[in-house]
Structure formats: structure tokens, C-alpha cells
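Complex 380.
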Amino acid sequence: MSVKLLAASLTKLSFETSVPVVKDDIEVKNRSGSYKIRVGPGLLAEAGTELAKLKLGKKAAIIADESVAKLYADRLQQSLKAAGFEICLSTLAGGETSKDMSRITPLLSFLARNKVERNDTVLAFGGGVLGDLAGFVAAIYLRGVNLVHLPSTLLAMVDSSVGGKTGVNLPEGKNLAGVFHPPQLVLSDTDTLKTLQRRELTAGLAEVIKYGIIADAELFAQITDGAPADLTPVIMRCVKIKARVVEADEHETTGERALLNFGHTLGHAIERVAGYGKYLHGEAVAVGIHAATLLSQRTLGLPAEDVEAIKKTLVKNGLPLQALGLNITEIKQVLAQDKKVMDGVNRWVLSPKIGKALVTSKVKPADVDAVIEEVLTSKK
Ligand SMILES: NC(=O)c1ccc[n+]([C@@H]2O[C@H](COP(=O)([O-])OP(=O)(O)OC[C@H]3O[C@@H](n4cnc5c(N)ncnc54)[C@H](O)[C@@H]3O)[C@@H](O)[C@H]2O)c1
Ligand SMILES: [Zn+2]
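Predicted structure with nicotinamide-adenine-dinucleotide bound:
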């Protein structure tokens, strides 16, 4: 897709300033129909009735993050039981190191042992790691069973639970094995965010800032001095943006979905070179957003006040601008293998102005080198 076309399609995603918050459930249309996303407090208690409305099988196989299960599994199970579901539960540790092929076979066996059938449902309960893992398992068990996401981190609510991407990391790179498997329903109970560690919440804010930069200048303005205490409207606004992007490019074929990768080209390289788990995804993405911002200034003339606003917003939300102590040669090697490389040329998601983004390969290698230097080495 050409840069012009991408820019034009994203213009459609820009929000009218007269629409401050999204109040209703959000519907995402896809090839096989559509699914609903509900965001708000108290939704775990409604999981049973919501699942019953879908008229799927009677078995609910919960695959949960073990920390989340300790805190909230009772609440979820009570609600499912009250709605007449048979329940089985498997838990595993969250964190990036769990997103590994070795976790898949035991989870498939768990479903088989519990005689989960084609029409039954896997409930993915946890952060993005659990969602990606359990989603992948739901996609391949019996060649695909129903999936409901119950995201419990800010990052999973605004990003990973929407759009159907599932999978695991390989030693060679992040998210290199996976399939598209959209859920039947997403319930984001914002009460669960109360127990999320500050560092994890902060990491999720990197994705929120990303949405503001690529598609919603008003959302960006709402978080420049830090995020509001009630995150529900912010989450809904992010979900709405992601929903529209993935509806337009469900399987990442037209290029629009690539816009969601603003800050991720370098972010993924940082995660991998530092060793998965050292930087949280959102922390690495924050440094990547800083780099993409500087590269946008050099390449597309992103105004200096926008550059300053983005830096200030990252800092005010507790996010890093730099990642130090990494091997820059290794970072460049990883960048050369990025999924967005085509014919050996890196394509970058850049922003000409807060609220807009486009994909371009017209980036000078010297500018990339200078920006990498700036965000990965300490100032003399
Ligand atoms: N599929 C997609 O489209 C997509 C999009 C963005 C990111 N991702 C993936 O998401 C992953 C990151 O997700 P994440 O940041 O949610 O990490 P995570 O799933 O590892 O969760 C972070 C930590 O928070 C804990 N936790 C989760 N919910 C909690 C709660 N309510 N209270 C207390 N503790 C809680 C977990 O145990 C874990 O230690 C990455 O692997 C990334 O690649 C996927
Ligand atoms: Zn991300």
C-alpha cells in the first residue's frame, strides 16, 4: 500500500474533537461475523451471563495467569457456575518468558483431559502473555475452539485482547509463531487493574500514548500530564481505534495494521537484545516511541513542539526515553530481520503530526543511526 493511501485511510480513523468518550460496547466486525468488547468495572461477575448469551457449549475452560487466578478466579467461577457452565481451570505464570512453545503442549493436554469439545470455550484470563498463549491454544486445539478474552492488564485491555493475534516467541524473535484467532467476546473488568503493579500499569500507558500519536490528538492531550484515575474512558477510546484498524486490515495484508507498530520496530529489538522480560513490552515500546518521534522529525518534519510534547508525555507517565547498556550492533542486526523489512529495506511507522501516522521506507540510514545512538547511549 502506498504511503499516500495509508495516510488517507488513517485520516478516517482520526476522531472528531466533539466525541470525548466512547460509552457503549464496541463491536468488531471480522470475516466470521463480529464480536463485542465491554469495558468497565464489575464485569467478571457478568461473565457467566455474557457467555450464556453467545449460546456456545456448556464447558468453560479457563486458562489463567496464576497471580490473577489467586485474586479473581473465585469471582469468575461463581459467575460461570451460576450461569450453568461446567468449569475446568489451568494456571500458569505470566511474564514474557512464559510465551514459549514449551507451554503449549501441557495446555492442549489440559483441554483434551477435560474433554473440551469443539463448541466449548477457552477463557483467556490474564495479561497479554496469557491472552496470546491461551488464544494460540484455542486456535489449534481441535483446529479451533471458541475463545473469550478476560484481559487483566492495561496493556491487554487496550491492545492484545483486540484483533485476534495469538502466538508465542521463538528464540529467533518475538511473536514469530502464531495464528489469527479472533475471540467471540472480550470483557475488560477495570476493577482488576487495582491490583496491577504500578510498573505494569505504566507499561500499558505506552500503548495508550501510541494510540494518541497515531490516531487521536485529543486522547493524546488527555494524558500529557499523566493518565486520569478512571481509565475506563481512555481504554474504550484506545479499543475503538484498534477495532477500526483491525476491521480495515484483519490479517495484516493491506498495511493499515502496521500503523499499530509505531514505536515497536525498535521496541521489539530492545526486548530481544536485552533478553525477554528485562524490559517490559511497554517500556521497550516507550523507548521505541521516542526513537520513532525523533525519526519522524528528521524524515517527515514532525514539529518540534510535537516532539517535546511526546517526550514530556512519556516522562510524565513514568516511562523511559532511553534504554542503556545494549549492544548497538546486535540491535541493528535485529532491526534488519524486522517483520516490516521488505526487499532488505526497513519500513518505519512515523508520524508527521500528533494524531496521524504513515508507513515509509524513505528513511535515511544515517538518520536511523543517529536516532538509535540518541536513545541507546547516555548523553556525554
Ligand atoms: N496479540 C496482540 O495483538 C498483542 C498486542 C500487544 C501486546 N501483545 C503481547 O502482550 C504481552 C504483554 O502483555 P502484558 O503486559 O499484559 O504482560 P503479562 O501478561 O506478562 O502481565 C504482566 C504481569 O502482571 C501480572 N498481572 C496481570 N494481571 C494482573 C492483575 N490484574 N493484578 C495483578 N497482577 C496482574 C501478571 O502475572 C504478570 O506478572 C507481550 O508478550 C506482547 O507481545 C500482544
Ligand atoms: Zn505493543
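The chain has a mean pLDDT of 91.
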